[in-house]
Design brief:
- By secondary structure, the protein is an alpha+beta fold.
- It folds into two domains: 2-76, Glutaredoxin (3-Layer(aba) Sandwich); 87-268, Glutathione S-transferase Yfyf (Class Pi), Chain A, domain 2, CATH 1.20.1050.10.
- The chain contains twelve helices and four strands, in the order E-H-E-H-E-E-H-H-H-H-H-H-H-H-H-H.
- Strands 2-1-3-4 form a four-stranded mixed beta sheet, with helices on one face.
- Helix 4 runs antiparallel to helix 7 (156-179), helix 4 runs parallel beside helix 8 (191-205) and helix 7 (156-179) crosses helix 10 (217-228).
- The longest helix is centred in the middle third of the chain and has 36 residues, at 87-122.
- The radius of gyration is 18 Å and the shape is globular.
Length: 269
């Protein structure tokens, strides 16, 4: 039996859900409420010492880190392979996994935080807010959280996020043009696509995606294809509650002009 420890709108968990859906694997979920600090409870830290979601329990064996979970699932359930068998294509796929893990994850967190989660933090009691900062556990992440909380889009960390997306989308446009699509590595969708999907989706639902995709036709074609892909619909879009979607659509436009202005200044430099 598979159980995924998740949070409703966690971009990393969404990668796992899409993978499970595409491979037709049944699973159960257990919610870990990040805004009630349940990820730092002693019980959950025994499951995932990093205090983040997702975590996968496969018959008592726990796997953490969403990228590793997706590859683990592909190896354990080989029907409908999502990792290329060709070593070169597999290496190309993992370049995108690294880009997501090393750049876009933090970038999306900063953009989401400045647009939406910052408001949630403001509505916390001072005691709960300080507990949230303390429990981050990594001084670098604490600095990022506090800077984005205090300065919003004007935080230098949000500028880093904007730059990270610009680098990634520039390369994605070039890659799709070079390989001729329709997917990142060619004719078949792979984990390269699945790893990117939640990050493009978050920007889209915040109303920010077009800042990067304007004038990039191959990415727009890819994103249109993603939205029509059954495993994306079932594994991500249909799992987002109306309340979560309304929150993203309400808060994202509040920072759209600031984000676009910082991106324009960055690309003009």
């Amino acid at each position: 039996m598979l159980k995924v420890y998740s949070y409703f709108n966690s971009i990393c968990t969404q990668k796992v859900f899409i993978t499970l859906t595409e491979k037709g694997i049944e699973y159960a979920t257990q919610n870990v409420d990040l805004f009630r600090n349940e990820q730092f409870s002693p019980e959950y830290l025994k499951i995932n010492p990093k205090g983040v979601v997702p975590a996968l329990d496969h018959d008592g064996r726990v796997v953490i880190e969403s990228t590793l979970i997706c590859e683990y699932l592909d190896e354990c359930f080989p029907a409908r392979r999502l990792v290329p068998q060709d070593p070169f294509l597999r290496a190309r796929m993992r370049l995108w996994s690294k880009a997501v893990d090393e750049q876009l994850f933090e970038a999306t967190r900063e953009l989401s935080f400045s647009a939406m989660f910052r408001e949630r933090m403001r509505n916390m009691t001072p005691e709960l807010r300080e507990k949230r900062f303390r429990n981050v556990g990594d001084p670098r992440r604490t600095d990022r959280f506090k800077s984005t909380y205090e300065h919003g889009v004007q935080s230098p960390f949000v500028l880093h996020a904007i730059a990270a997306y610009e680098r990634a989308f520039k390369y994605l446009e070039e890659t799709l043009a070079e390989r001729g699509g329709p997917w990142v590595l060619g004719k078949q969708a792979t984990l390269a696509d699945i790893n990117l999907m939640p990050f493009a989706a978050r920007l889209s639902y915040l109303g920010l995606l077009e800042a990067w995709t304007a004038g990039r036709p191959h990415i727009n074609e890819w994103w249109a294809r993603v939205q029509d892909w059954p495993s994306f619909k079932k594994g991500l879009r249909e799992l987002i509650s109306d309340a979560e979607m309304e929150e993203m659509r309400a808060h994202g436009p509040k920072v759209r002009d600031e984000v676009a202005a910082r991106l324009a200044a960055l690309t003009a430099a």
